[in-house]
Structure formats: structure tokens, C-alpha cells
Amino acid sequence: MAFCIAVIGKDNAPLYLATSDLERELDLQYHVHAALDVVEEKCLIGKGAPDSKELYLGLLYSTEIHKIYGFVTNSRVKFIVVIDSSNVALRENEVRAIFRNLHMLYTDAVCNPFYIPGEQLFSKKFDRAVQKLMNGST
Amino acid sequence: MNIEIITDSGACPLFRSLESQILNAIPLDTCEWRRTFQRPTKHVRLEAQAQQFNVEPLEKYKQGEWSILDHPILHIYVTECNDVDAYKATIREEIDAWLKLLTSYGVSDWMILLVETLDIRKTKNLLPRTTVLDKIRLDFGSKNDDRCISVLNPAKFEQKSTESFRCLVQRIRFLMLTSYNRNIAKYEELIRSKREKRNHDDWDFRQYFFLQEDLALIFEKLELPTEALIQYDELDAMFSQFITHTGFNEKQQWLAYFKRPLSAFHGICLSRVDKFEMRQKIRSDGVSLLEFRNYLFERQAYLLLTCNDIPEIAKRLLGFLFSTLREVEYIKLDCQEGALCCWEFVCALEVLQLCEQAMEPNEVTCFQHCAPIWNLAKDKLYELGKLCGLLPGCTPSSEQLHIVVQLSSGIGDAPPQQQFLQAMPQLRDRSPNRKPKLSAAQQLKEALGSNQAFQKLYLELAELAISTYKHVTRLRSARLVGLDLGKFYCALNEPHKAVGFFTDLLRELKAENWHTLSSQTLLELANCYRKMGDSLAYTKTCSSISCCAELETLVRTFYFDEFLKSLKTLNTTLSAQPSMENANYCVLEDHFRILDIEVLNTNPIIQDDHLLVQLKMESLYPRGIVVECIKLCYELHVTPESEAALHQDIPLKSKDCTPRLKVTLQLFHKEDGSLNCASVTSDTPKTKQPVRRTSSTKRKLSPSVQADFSNIVQVENIALQPGINLLELKGKATRVGRWQFKQVCVSMSSLEFLSEQLAMQLQPPTFEICTKPASASLHFKTLIAGIVQPINLHVAGGSFIFPSDAKISLRCSKNLRIRQALQPDDPGCANDATFESTLLVPLLQFKSFEERSFPLEVLTDMPGRKVAKHHDHHITLSCPWSRNELPIPLEFQPAMEATCRLHTCGTQKFLQVIMKGLDAQLLLHQAKVKCDVPGVRLQDLNPDPQEPIEIHKSLTVTYLYEIQVEPLKTEHELPIVKVHFVVKYATLTQPQVWRNYGCAFDLVDYSTLFKLQAQLEPNELCRLRTVCNLNLKITKVNENPYVDLMYEVLNDQNLWAVCGRSAGVVSMKDVDSHSISLDVMPLSTGFLPMPSIRLSKYTAGGKSKTDGHSKVHPFPPGQVYNSTKSMQIHVIASVSGEQ
Q1: What is the ipTM of this complex?
Q2: Which of B868, B893, B918 is the last residue of a domain?
Q3: Domains of chain A: which residue ranges?
Q4: Could you tell me the CATH number of the domain that includes residue B959?
Q5: Do A64 and B325 touch (CB under 8 A)?
Q6: Which of A37, A63, A86 sits opposite B476 (nearest CB)?
Q7: What b/e sequence results for A55-83 when a residue is b if at least 16 CB atoms lie within 10 Å of its CB, and e otherwise?
Q8: CA of B465 to nearest chain A CA: how many angstroms apart?
Q9: Domain range for residue B75?
Q10: How many domains does the structure of chain B reveal?
Q11: What confidence tens digit (pLDDT) does each residue in B180-216 have?
């Protein structure tokens, strides 16, 4: 369902990154990193209207094989999801659902008192849940 | 092109002359179009074409097979019948039949035009009751008389016709728009109904396409490009849906129509001369999917261009390309390898060229969309290059050359183009001198032609992609393109050009902690540096790679070995003056992690002591490594808050370490010059700027500036194991102050690994180096001589480091002795021999900054002096920290005071010794006097066995002795007799310890020479103012040399009056006594003291002039004894009669 799901901290350092395809992981990482440009751009535009509480940023950019979607939490943690662009059956609402679930998973993970905010996420539970999410079996 | 059919059965030839005039007039002005369904009103410019009445389109209209494009919008019946009778005869029926026909087809857009050719004179003279127009209106225009209109024949009435002609044109425009409103609504309904049937077997997309496109074209003509665009967008979406959702449905027969192989893959062309060339082709020959898509996009782009929304074109391009690719894939079109790349490339470049020409550089939104297109073009070109063997280092094989030929033919030639400048006034040519750009297809063909051209175009595109990304501040994306470009340069064997791109990327990635990616970039860099032969940079990069935890161990150890190998050769190749660029500095954080710094010394650290610091450092190297030196420098600790306090802490010895607050006065004046506000501001110096937030999290590529390494702790030649190492660093604490660790520097061969400023990462401990002089002092209260006095030696160690056997020696001045204080039960306590004149006080285990007090006791002899006078002593200290001796003055008060007096009673002499207590409380015992002079004996008159007597301040004790001098010994022989008084004393606290107190008295005039007796007559009873006789008798008691004596009566003038002489001289030569009588008179009643007599030695004046005066010398008190001294005379009042 998704190629890659990434959680990126507010200082743009990756906190968590999972890919479905290990061989393409590097390439996907580069794409996720570049997507931060668009996230910043969109957040900058969003600054003008503080009442817009929309966390979902929509499609950041697309390539021939990927569609890259973004989401930013109120604490400026970014979620990036890379989706197979040949999967036309996937609706925007489903992408939103992925982000909603991911947000909940992330919130649960950082609620762990042993987690230091800003550190990388190594929670196995979180990883399992994200892998599930990535495979589309939510 | 709007078709409007004007039908005329009656007056064809007449109307022909009017027709062109009307058609020309219609587009001359705009007309307000009030639209249905609350769509906004719009001013539109109409065009019209005339056409003879024809039933065929009406037939189609009725059947629902019509196209709005061909449908007649307005039907006009023209007549020039001005005669009412003629009208009634023929025209009315004709019109009636015409209208009925129209109604039967459901057409209500009609108009009757009456061309008036009335004679002016006729109309003037005879006004007809009813005109033909009235009749027509009466007959047909009952509901809509605005559809019946007359116009003066402009051929005949040139002046008058203008007004009526204007009205006519206006009316035609209005009716046309009304018709459009009706027809568009109807047509939309038709489209909807057709769309509903899209899943029917015989439904054909192409038919539907033309149906809806006609509507779009109408909108376009009516200058509603956005609405036209909506129609195209709907068609676009519908087509995509068909392909992606029902792509393999057998029911969709028409799909096979688009499934023709892609033999040609022309890109889009946004500046075609004939825009509808393809439309024609679709209708007649059929087109490939790509061609159809191209046409659709071109139309959309054209409409967007009309709206002047060029950014939207760029925005839509990628979606268009990708969805088309997907469609090609879905319907499994056969195509040549690389064909789609070519198509994408040409499309991308076409749009980019349009944007480049149209856009101002500050229009960021357009460039935001352009940047990914540049990148795409670059990527596609690369793919093609790979396919055709055009990449650096490759030469195309014959097969690949064949592919090039095939692709080139497939790309096709660009169709004849409109010049943008002429076509679109909003487009401009930015650089007129630039040679006209080649079309996208030409550029691609050229690039595929040779390796050089390919490389040139690739580099150009990559640079453009980077610069456009940078222009829209998408730096990460720009760096990513840089990565590709860098790799390309590497392949070109130009690693020096690649390095810049890789370093930029590395900086970006490291700054945001993307370790996996940054380690990959390091690998690229290492590759570059190796090729360049930059051994320094290579060494540094190898070192960094070997510390990347993200990489595989095998890779890391390989680069670790490379690093060690390269490090060895580095010494010889290192450049002499390292600049920041090729410096031998490395970022320490990439290789080591400083976990903790702890000062091992106990606080405070004394100046010149060894500073011991424990550094907890994690080595990230895969294996152990030997480090030449690890240095940790520290600087004066400055916090903004404590800055003021620091001034007091740090002595002002060194100028550089005393940061002063720069306080300046600020005065704000009002407009009239009076003072508004005064304040004091302080600028914190820039060097003490608090940490910037970004630098705390971000990692840098080049190390921070080297701090001042003049104050360091260090360790040399130490092996660091992978993982955590505990290191002990040493240094000498040279300078005083509060310090904070600043930077760590690890030296390995000629490389130096510099850390960040430590204060930004962990809070390094601060420590204080201080110095404090040692001191010794003596503390005491008032000191009393003669008894044991407590005294305290106070030693404050300061920062002096004491040897274990340190001693302080105390040397006393003469008659002063000292000892360490003893307990009262100590046997030596009572023994005065334990006091010594020199004392060594050992400072056992004395530590710096310790303070210790030593109780001591001093004792000084009490010199036998009569008067109470303090005694000065001093104790000289010699301390281990000082070469100079330190004299401390001490002042002792005597414990008691002894005085003596000599008393006379006739010839008897008595010695009185008075002991006066002072500050101390003492017991006295065994007082004795001694006199060694022969013939002088002192008899003790004190009560025998003497009990100890306590004296204290204001309590005196008196001892009495009689002096008996043998008469043989005259005073002439022994003028002075020395008498020693000795008494034992003890303090109340130590009553058993008796010490001696001795005092020597000199006795003079210890024998009586003369005795004086006075007697008053009548004896013992005197009356006031009665003269009495005072008998004075002077008797010589002992032999003496004084012959002439002078007596004087010294009386109080208020008590006694001497009658006659009050003084006289007697000679005692050869006589033993003299009696003198004097007359005295009491002047007061009561008990009066006897007038006192004074006896003096008299020396008569000699004959010589020098010695002419007589001299009188008084006797000392012991030589004359006045036996009647202090006798009192009772004087009673005189008899009253005598007064």
C-alpha cells in the first residue's frame, strides 16, 4: 500500500523510517528528505492563517512511481508517506486515514515515559503497527 | 464563427446588401450576457455568419443529434414589404408557415426584420393608420414584440438609418445571447444524457468527446476560457477513468481505437499554427493514445494561456505525464524502449520554454513547478543516454546507434510554430540577443546524436534544475539533484567538480542528522578524493566513514585500514599552511562522542597544583586506535548573571580575563529638547553570546574555530578502544579563576579533531583554581606578667601545600617562656621548667585551607619594680611558607605592685610595704624582708604564722617592719640601706604553685636628726583672739653636721595669726636643744590644728658677692620628727565683756 513511512522530528532529523522495499530504501530516503522542502513551503504558507488547523498537507510531490504525501503535527513533527503512484485505487481519503492512524500510533509511542522527545523511535510495538499500516492491513 | 441563419423568402436580394453590414457590425461592440443559473454576467463579443435556411440541422436538433457548434442560433425573416395590403396578401402567410415550421422543430429563436424603404415625402404628408410593422407585431409579436423589428434601409436613408441600424444590431446580439442561454442549457442536458449511457455497448467515447468539445469551443468563442477548460478537464478525467478502471472491459469497444502502437511519440507543442489539426485527425484517421493526450493537454494549456495562468500549465504537466504513462501501461501499448522518455522529455522542455519566456524571475509559484520539471527532463535524458550508450565513458554500439535512429524518427519534427511574441502579447523575450532556441525535439535529437552534445545538455539541465530549486529555496531537492550531477562528474572523471556537490549535500544531511544518507555521501566523497589524490581530504573522509555506525562493518573496517594507511603517509604530503578549507582539522563529533567531563580534584583547586580531569569519551572507530594527544582546554567561566560578581572573584591581575560590562548611558529627549527618559544599557559582548538554538542540534561539516588552548589538561599516546573510554587528563593549574571546559582536541598524526564548544552540548563542570596566603597569628587577651597566660596560635593554611613534617617555631624574647598548653592534671603543669624560650609547634597532616588553633601558655618573670608599668615582650614566628620571621609584640601587665613607705615615731623607724593587687587574683604567702647591711635589722611586726592572703584589684595588703639601726652606724656611713622584700604568690586557679616575687627598696634618711616639740600656753585652753604663747623646742637627737636651722610657722591665715616674727634662725652649734617662744592668736573657735612648724637647713649668706644670699634647704621627712604634729587645740569663745 505504502512504500515508505517516515516520522521526522521538528528539527528535520529522521525519527523513524520504514520502507517496504529494502533495496530502494536509500532512494526513498532521499525522496523523503527532499519532500521536507515542500513541507516547509506549505507550513510557511500555513503560517499566514493560524486558525487553519489542517494537519494534512496533501500531496507534496510525485514522481513516476511515487506519490509523496505529508502531514505535520502541532508539535511540528512531520509524517511522510510514500505511495505507489500506479495504485490508482488509493483515494485521498485513504491517505488521510493512514496519516490519522500514524498520528495515533506516534502519540502512543511518545507517551512512553522512557521515550525522550526528539530521539529516534525504536519502539518495536510502533514498528510493528507501522509495518501493518504500510501493508494496508489496518 | 457563431452561426446564425437568417432566412428570407421574400426579399433576398435586398437583404444581401444589408447582410454583410450587419455581420460586420456585430463583433464591433461587446454585449452584456446575463446568464442563467446565477452564473456571473459577462461582457462578450459576438461574431456571426449568415446562412440560408436549411431544414437539415433542425432535423438533427429535433432528434438530439445536433451539435451546438453547427446549430443555428437565430432565425431571421427579412421582408421589405411596406404595403399593408401586400403584406396581408402574401407575407403574412409566409411568415406564419415559417414560424410553424420552426415551432415544429422546437426552435423559438426567431426574428422578423422589416426593412423600410418608405418615401420621405409620403410619410410626411400622409401618416398611414397602420404600418406593416404594426401589423406584423399584431399578428406574431403578441408575446414577444421585441422579435419584430424594422430598420430603415441604409442604402436609401443614409443619415436616418444609423439609429435604427444600431438598434437592430443590438437587438440581434441580445437575441443571440438569449438563444445561447437556452441552447447551452439544452446542450448540457444532451451531454448529460449521453454521458449516462457511457456504459452502453454502442457508446463511443469519440462521439461524446466531440459533443462536449463543441461546448468547450462555444465557451471559448464566448471568451469563457475557464468554462471551456472545465469541459476539457471533465473529458480528461473521464478518459482516465475509462482507462484505469474499465481498461480491460470488453464492453468498451471504442478503447481498441486508442490501442494503436506508438510508432510516433511526438511531444506536445504549445504553439501550433493549426490548433485543430489533431481534432480533424481524431475525427477522420484516428490517433494514438499519446496523440490524443497531447491534443487534450495542448487544448488545456492553450486555454490556461488565454487565462494567463502559465504556472498552472507547469503545475499540470507532471500529472499529465505520469497519468499518461500509467495509461500507456494499462492498455499495454507496444512501444519502443525509450520512446516514452523522449516523449516526456520533449513535453517537459516545451512547457519549460514557455515558462521561461513568460515568467518574471520573481514569480516563485511558477518556478516551484518548473524545478521538478527540469529535474524530470534531466532524469529522462539520463535514461536515454543510458539506453543509447551516451553516458560518460561509453561509446554507442551499433545496436544503440540503431535505437537512436529509431527514436529520432519517432520524436518527429516540431510542427510549424507560432512565434510566441506575436501570438501572445503577455509573453516577452527576455534576452533578445540570444539565438532562437531550438525546439525541444531538436534539442533532444541533437543530444542523442553525440556523446558531447548529450553531456552538454545533461549538465545544462542539471544546473538549471539545481538553480531553479535553489531559486524557490528547495535546497534539499537542489542538493539531491547535485548528487546526480556529482555522480555524473565522477563518471566524467572530473571528481574535483563533483566534490562541491557532495559536500553541499553532506552538509545538508548532517545538519539534519540523516546519518544513513550522509554516510552514503561520504562514500562518494571518499571516492572523489581518492581519484583527485587529495590525501588529506581522503584521510579525513575515510576516518569519518569508518565511524559511521549506519554502514556495514566490512565497509567500515576497510575504510579504517585505509585511514590508518593514509594517515602514515600524510606527514610528508601535508601542506605547509592549512587554511580552513584544506585544514587538518576534523569534526570531533563524527569520530568521538564526549559523554562526560569530571574534575577529579577536590574543590577548590590550588594554584600550581595538578589538575586531574576524567574524560568519558566514546570512540566510534570500529577498532582500537592510538591517539597521540588528547587536549582539553578551559577558559574563564563567564555567565551573564555572574559577570558582575566575577569582578570581585577574580583578582585584577590579568587584564584579559576581566570582562567589563559595557554600560552606556542613554538619554531620550523630547521634541522640545527636554529629557524624556534616561536609562542605562549594557551590551553583552558578542563573544559571550548565549548559544544559538540551531547550533545545538545541527552538526557541522567543518569544525568550529579552534579555541584558545593555552590552558589545557592533556594525555598523550593513549589507545582508545571502540566504545566508551575513561581517560585521565592532567595539567597544571597555573592561573587563578573560575574555569569552564571549552573544547576537546584529539591529535592523531597531523590530524586534529576539534570538538564543538562544549558548553553547547553538555554542561561541562566548572572548577575553581584559587590561591590564598597561609597565615599564622597569636590570639590573646590582656596578658599578665608573672602568671601562666593562655595564648592561641592560629594557623590558616591557605593554598599552601604543607609538607608532612611542617613546623612553626616560636622564639620568645628574654624573660619570656612558652610551652604548649597542658591539662590541669598534667604532671608538668605545675612545673615551670616545662616553659622554654623556644617552642616548635608541629603541623601534623596539615592540609591546605585547613585552619587550626594551638593553645599555648606563656609565662614571664615579674620584675620587682615598685611602680605598675607594663612590660614589652615579643614572640618571633618562623613559618614554613615564609622565609621571613614574624615578630609579634606582646605586652604584659604586672600582676601586682609593691610600694614601701618609711614611718617615723620619735627615733623609731618603721617600714610599710604595700602590696596592691592589679588584674590578677592572687594569693600571697610568706612575705619576708631581708637586709644585708650590717647593723641594720628589720623586725617583722606582722602576725605570725601567715595565712595566704588573697589580693585582687582594689585590694591592698600591707606588711609592717621596724628598722633598727645600730647607733654606731651613722647615716653618714650608710646613706642608703637596701631592703629586699620577698613574697610568694600563687594564682587562685593554681594555689599550689608558688612563685616568688621580690622587690628591692632603697631606704634613705632612716635616722631622726632633730625632734621638734611645740606647746601652747596656757596649755590646752585658748580663747578666741587671745594671744597665746607658742613654745617651740628643737632637740638634736642624733649627731649631724647641720648647725644653722631655720624655723617657720606655717599656719592657716583663717585659723591662726602669728604675732611678731613667724620665722627665725637658730644655731645648734654646741647645744642639743633650743627653745623658742612665739605669740600666736587663734582666729576661730573649735578644735584647731596646732600651727605647723617647718624646720629647714639654713646657710647664711657669705661675705663674698657671689654667695651673698642666705639659702634654706628643707629636711627630708625622715630626719625631722615633729612630735606634736596634728595636735589639736580647743579654742573657746572669748569672754563677751572683753569684746
Answers
A1: 0.93
A2: B893
A3: 2-135
A4: 2.60.40.1230
A5: yes
A6: A37
A7: bebeebbbbbbbbbbbbbbeeebbbbbbb
A8: 14
A9: 5-199
A10: 7
A11: 888 888 888 888 888 888 777 778 888 888 888 888 8
